[in-house]
Structures are given as C-alpha cells and as structure tokens.
Amino acid sequence: MEWTREERYRPYQQYSALELLHLQAAADNSPEQLRYHIRPSSGLLNDPNGFSYFNHAWHVFYQSFPFGATHGLKSWMHMQSTDLVHWHSRGLALTPDNEYDSHGAYSGSAKQIGDRLFLMYTGNHRDQDWNRTPFQLGAWMNQNNQVTKLKQPLFRNPDYISEHFRDPQLLEYDGKYYALLGAQDAKTETGHLALWASDDLQDGWHDVGLTNFTPYPMGYMIECPNLVMIDDHAVLIFCPQGLEQKITHYDNIYPNTYIIGDEFDFENATLKGSSQVPVNLDEGFDVYATQAFNAPDGTAYAISWVGLPDINYPTDEQTWANCLSQVKELHIRNGQLYQQPVAAMTNLRDPKGTKVFSNRTSIIDDHAGQQCELNLTISADQTGVLHLAANEDLSASLQIQFDTNTGALTVDRSRVGATVAKKYGTTRSIKLPAHQDLKLQIFLDHSLAEIFVNDGEQVLTLRYFADQQHQKIAFAQPINATGSLYQLKNI
Amino acid sequence: MEWTREERYRPYQQYSALELLHLQAAADNSPEQLRYHIRPSSGLLNDPNGFSYFNHAWHVFYQSFPFGATHGLKSWMHMQSTDLVHWHSRGLALTPDNEYDSHGAYSGSAKQIGDRLFLMYTGNHRDQDWNRTPFQLGAWMNQNNQVTKLKQPLFRNPDYISEHFRDPQLLEYDGKYYALLGAQDAKTETGHLALWASDDLQDGWHDVGLTNFTPYPMGYMIECPNLVMIDDHAVLIFCPQGLEQKITHYDNIYPNTYIIGDEFDFENATLKGSSQVPVNLDEGFDVYATQAFNAPDGTAYAISWVGLPDINYPTDEQTWANCLSQVKELHIRNGQLYQQPVAAMTNLRDPKGTKVFSNRTSIIDDHAGQQCELNLTISADQTGVLHLAANEDLSASLQIQFDTNTGALTVDRSRVGATVAKKYGTTRSIKLPAHQDLKLQIFLDHSLAEIFVNDGEQVLTLRYFADQQHQKIAFAQPINATGSLYQLKNI
C-alpha cells in the first residue's frame, strides 16, 4: 500500500473507530506478533520515549502511528510495568493536537520532578509550504497518568541549527535542568549534540553549546542522544546518520553507537576522558534509537527500537510494524559496555517447559517453538552451525555459524523466510576470543531474536520472518555444548 | 451523560479513532480498573460469549459497546488464554455489520467443529418502526482467529415465540447439533428455554420444543441458558427475569440461577431428575449471564458477567463499565454446586508479597492493597467483622460480618464508597453451618471482590468503589483465625 502525504498526516479524528478496531485486531492476531515484548497496539511503532521510573512503576512510551505500517502522524503511547518485563498499555498519552506538534509529537524523554512526571519532546510543525520548525515542548503527567501540555514551547532551534533539532533528553545536574538534543549545523549540515540549560525547567532555557565528545565528524545528523551514568562512567548513546565507515564500521542503514567517558562537564558541554570513537551498541540488523536512563538506585537501563528508519518489514502488509527490545541492564567491565537481561526476565520461564542438555548435542528440540530462551555454552575449538526456527531438515532456519577455534560468530538470516533490507546484507559477524568457550543467551519471540554473547559483552538483535511452524532448534552436526531451553510466557 | 437512541446505535465507522483512543486510555488508567480480570478495552462490557477451547487455547468473547458506559450497538471482543487466567486481547471479532445483526451482534456460544470454531449468536435486527426480529446466526473462526459470517440466518423466532428469543448455546449430542435458547411465549409472555436441532449445523434447523425442566413459572423471560455436564449431572444455568420471590428468593434485579438434573433428554427436550427449584448461583450483588461449558477433558468451567442489566455503576462517569469474573471450575458434591478458582490462579501470587498469620488476629495488613487474595479460616463459635479495603480507623470499608456460632455471614457494601444499586439493598446474607470453622477465599481486584465460602459451596461476587488509598484488612477486634495474604500480579 502506498501512502500519500495527505493520508499520513490526516488528523486522528478523521480515521474511523471501526478502522482502528480492525487494525488493532490485525496486530493482535498476527502470527508474527511479539508476545513478550512491547509492540504496537496497531500500526507502526518506532522510538522508545520517556523511559523512566515514577509513582512506584516503570514507564516507557513509544512513537506510534496507529493507522498503518508507515511513518505518519506520530503520538506517544504509554506502557507501564512494575518489573521492567510485564508491560501494560496505558494508551494514548501525547496526541499531536496543537500548533507546535501539529505534524507529530516526536521523540523525547521523561523525568520525575516533584510528584509529577515531566515529558519533554519535540513538536514537529510544518507550515503550508512544508517547511519544518522543531519546537521543544513540555507536558506534565500526574499520578493518574493524565497528561497536560505546557501552553508554550520551551525553546526552538537557534539560527545556526537547521530544522533537524530533536529528541531532547532531560537531565538534572547540580540543581539545574539540562536538555541534550540531536542537532544539525545549518551551514555545514553536520551532526552534533546540542546542550541547553534552564534553572527552573519551564522558562529561561538557554544554549550551553554543542557538546565536545569526539574529534571525528558525526555525519549529517545525530538522533536520539542519551547521557547515562554506568558504573561511574559517563556514557553517550546516540545514532549518527551518515557516519563515515572509516570511523566506525557498521552494516545497517544507520548505526546506534556509544562512546564512554570519565565524566560529563555540563557547564562546558564536554565529555571528559572520551573514548572518542563510536562503537556499535548492537551487532545485529535492527537496533536503533535506544533510550537509556538511570533508575533511582543508579542502575542504567536501556530499551531499543527494533526497527530502522527507511526500512520496510514483511509485517507492513499486515498493517503493523516493529517492536521494542527487552530492557537491558548496562554495565562497564574492562572499559567495555555490557548489556544484560534484567533479573525479572527469568520470571517468564515456564517451569513446565524447561529442557536441560549436555555433552555432544545435535537436536536441542524438535518443537522448541518460537517463544523461548536458549542458554548455551559451546566448548572451545569447534566450528558448527546452530539452526533456530528451523524446519525438519534444517534447510530453512535462522543460522548462527560459530567458530570457537579462531573466534568468530555470524548470524545469517538469508534462509529463514521473507527477506528484510537485503540491500544491507543478510549476515552480521562478530569476533570472539580464540580458543574459548562461547556463552550464548538467545531469546526468540516469534519474529524477534535477541542474542546475548558472553554475558552481554556483545548483543545481536534482529527481526526474522519464519514460517511459525518451523520450530526446531538444532546443531547441523553434534557439538560439545551444555545448556537449557525454556519456554517463555506471554506478558 | 444521557445517551440518545441514535447515539447508541450509531455505526462504529461514525465514531472517530481519536475518540476511541481516548476512551481506551480512560479505561486503561481508571483507578478502579481491574488488573487481573477481563475488563472492557473501552466502553461497556456485558455477557461473556463463546467460552470454548480451540486451537490449543481457551477463548472467551465479551459483549462490547466500545464507545461509552451504555448498552449501545454491541459487538464481540475476543480474549485468548493458555491457562484460563492470563487473558490476552485478540480484538474485535464480530461486528454488527449486516441486515441480520444490524442492531447488535448479541450473545451466543462457540464450539470447535472440525478445525474451526463455530460461533452461534443472536443478531438483533430492528426495522424502521423499531420492531425487532431476533435472527440466530453463525460464523466460522479459523486458526488465525479470522471470522467469516454465514450469509444466511440459521433460523429466527417461530410465531409462538416473541421478539425475545436469544443467547443460543450450541451443543452436540449423538451426532446431532442442538441449540438451547432463551425464549418468551408470545401469547402468555412467559419465559422458557427453547431447544432447536440440526443434523448438519448450517441447514435444516427445526424446533424440538420448549424444554421441560421445572414445573414452576420462570417469569417473563429467561436469558443466557447453559446446559453443562458437571460430575455426571446435567445442570442448567440460566437467568430468569421476573421470577417470583416465592419460588426462589433473590435480592438482585434479576437472578442468575441453576437447576441440577440427572440427565438431559435431547429428543424430548427434558431435564430428567430435575431439582425443579432454581437456586442462586452467586449470593453477591452483581453476577449475571454466567456462561459455562465442558472442556475437552469434561471439566465444567464457568465465567460470569459481573454487572447487571438496568443497573448503573460509578465508573460509568469514567466512560467504562463492568468486567468478567474469574473462571470458576464447577463440581457437584452432596447434590450441591461448588464453584472454585482454577488451579492456575495460584500463579498470580507474588512470592514476595505473602503474609501468613495465625491465632488471635486483629490487623491482617495495614497496606494489603486492593489486588490480593486472602485465604482465611475463622474458628467456630465467634462473631466479628472483617474489614476489607478499609481506611485507618475502619470507618470506611467493605464489611464481612460473620457468626460462626449460629452460622451466618453478611457482606455489607454500604460504607465502602460510592453506592451501587441501593434500591436493591446494600447487604447480602447467607447461612452457614452452625458451630463450624468458616473458610473464606477472598479475591480483591480494585473494585471487584470474589468471596468463595467453604471451598466454593457458596460464592459472593460484587463490585465495590472504595478510595484506592483504603488498603487495610483487619478484624474489628481480635479473632481466632489463621490464613495467608497474597499480593497478586497483573495479567
């Protein structure tokens, strides 16, 4: 289905309730639908927004176009959880309904201030000639989850920043409020991180300056910046668009990267002790727009959009698209970022659906299904292929090719089903330590695979679109491996 | 808000998607909202429909008017579960969209036939003069939950039955299909159960006759009949409207009752060995339209509408209304019907939120919350009051007054918060065996209480509308009692 601009930006009140009910039922009943991840109630989901802790619960919102699998007029849909795993819909939270967000309530963040949650986001406004103005906007959410927008914008792009000025992350430091934003220099058309500050949140926002965090050019734009403290390191997580491959190699259309520093100097907008070179946050096919924040106890958590701008997915035809990743707990060990499932993920394991295996293993499970967790240790000095979501003779599967001799792992989604973004390749490869055991923790959720390598030292996240009857998990030939397979419950 | 007839019967495509999204968010965020029961995604919920097992899952649908807390144009909304406890929305399943169900896809049942689920329901049709014709309709649901309606009605009311002819329960016996329906004699305006039969389901439906199951008059109409086998007894569960109090005493506007028989003679439409006098299925304030069926293993399960026709509830002002009960497993012991929580209900217990108490107990928990299960044994020969959802000084609470000396229990909702259906009284009382311990299993879900007495020999189900900050559970004075309190998780 081709969407015209007019259709994509049609006000929500001009769509019918019957149409929406049918779209919701289509998403509910899709065979490829996620069952323990956040997914759109209908239509398209993109960036996670407002990931926060407030009023004894975890909150995350997602960018939503409820009326189809296209990037149309965006709103914020609200999800709430008490354990970072079981998420429950709290419905439409931010609607594009005024002059400043007329063409989309775009991405942003949330932070508890007093007994309310402050939502800071980018209002996308276009005039009659389709010229864009990005307004940085605020709204309060009370303890009943009711949202009231501020009447006036907090600030807009200064002259030297183009229309690409968005995704504010609200931070508090030393009694002041700061906003970190993705920004494009109007003259040079290069990507930057802008830092703004305010004493009282609502008024007097002023430009601190562009952030110093790397000597390298960051392409033509940076989206979705996050500054987060991880084990006493200041870490920037962000999405540079148009980043040169010689700076950081990446395979996806746009990468989602991070840079580790010692600390962040808010007054001078500088990441001190920066590692300078962006590193891929996820080595899979589909992670973008990751949002991270520090919980009240200081722990850093992240959640990602599993989907990419300008990429189509097979479920588009079913009128819905994309999902969020599971929440990942972030740590730094030996100067490297680790991402791990949160503790409560183990509560999804169905005690009746556990299978333990050891020694020379070939078939792990003929009917593992596609809603499971596989924990696996593959002994050193072997090569082989692990087939996931496979048919009986393993001719169709999601392949993990491993070599624990020289140390290499490749995920190959070329033979699993409908292809996705073939232009950007059908394999993703990482290096492993040579001659060492390989630990894999693999989550399958019908059309999503999350592969945590060696306790989260590396993560590969990807969508796959297999026949849902292809439920076998097996090695191509017997392999020295031990592990457990768990069936996982719906959330 | 007053609803005009025109507003109530406005086609779904004339409501806007924005309106529906706001209604869904309002239901999602209501402080009184149920968190582990089936509740409307928006608007009003009434009868459970199509309770069945199909395609490795449990299914139940509910009567829905999605656009407000009024009995408007009804559809079927679909819920699915693998354990009878964790239900997940599968969205709009039957829409009122043709000549035969133009004024509502009314209640009915579902049954697996071959590899599909057959939905049998009443289409509510009204002509321009608002004269009603009740059509009995069919639809097939496939393994992807897609519903296709039959083009022609199965049958309509014969001349001797008035417009009140609805709620077909589809049954299969000895290679034939049968439908049991609520029916009103056109001439005498009395309530009956009609039995119809067909050899091949789609054609040739014929009238077997009115069912013989009691010598007493059953008021002016019977709604929602179910024939179910419980421990080798044939049991009729039904809702007589206008039943004389001298036949069966009841307090609610309409009762939901049952009659136990030895067996059901389909050829002669007769409940053999009938206990004749209807007995209240639930002794609380709010159960109606219970739907029961036999699972493939023969076990009888029931689920009830918690709500009553012609009664307003405080959440009406919040644009949503009503819920379904938890699923109850049915048994017969000593000639009496027992209703018990299904086994998987224990999976809702949060292991971190358990509290055990014994001996002379006064305060059970100062902050029990309103999402919990209380299992309690009160020793014989005591009188007292148990306060649920209570404020600090117990002046506001849902009261359970008990007397294990003479044997009596009263639930009093007059002091818990906003009043409901005051016209029909604010207390419900039952008799207990004298000089015996009293076992109570009480489930609270924010605005719903389900009280199972003595292992389900009696059940009292009711809505209550307390301040959600009233979280205390305590006896008025110390009582000899033992038990456990569990916090329960959301579904």
Automatic annotation (TrEMBL), chains A, B:
GO MF annotations, alphabetized: beta-fructofuranosidase activity
Keyword Oxidoreductase recorded: no
Keyword Hydrolase belongs to the record: yes
Domain of life: Bacteria
Gene3D superfamilies: Exo-inulinase, domain 1 (2.60.120.560), Glycosyl hydrolase domain, family 43 (2.115.10.20)
InterPro entries noted in UniProt: ConA-like_dom_sf, GH32_Enzymes, Glyco_hydro_32, Glyco_hydro_32_AS, Glyco_hydro_32_C, Glyco_hydro_32_N, Glyco_hydro_beta-prop_sf, Suc6P_hydrolase
Main localization of the protein described in the UniProt heading: cytoplasm
Reaction equation(s) it catalyzes: Hydrolysis of terminal non-reducing beta-D-fructofuranoside residues in beta-D-fructofuranosides
Residue intervals of the Glycosyl hydrolase family 32 N-terminal domain: 37-341
GO (cellular component) term, any one: cytoplasm
CDD domains: GH32_ScrB-like
Enzyme Commission designation: 3.2.1.26
Pfam families: Glyco_hydro_32C, Glyco_hydro_32N
Keywords of this entry: Carbohydrate metabolism, Cytoplasm, Glycosidase, Hydrolase
Record GO biological process: sucrose metabolic process
Domain Glycosyl hydrolase family 32 C-terminal: 362-475
Localization per record: Cytoplasm
Pathway: Glycan biosynthesis; sucrose metabolism
Function: Enables the bacterium to metabolize sucrose as a sole carbon source.
Family membership noted in the UniProt record: Belongs to the glycosyl hydrolase 32 family.
Protein name from the UniProt record: Sucrose-6-phosphate hydrolase
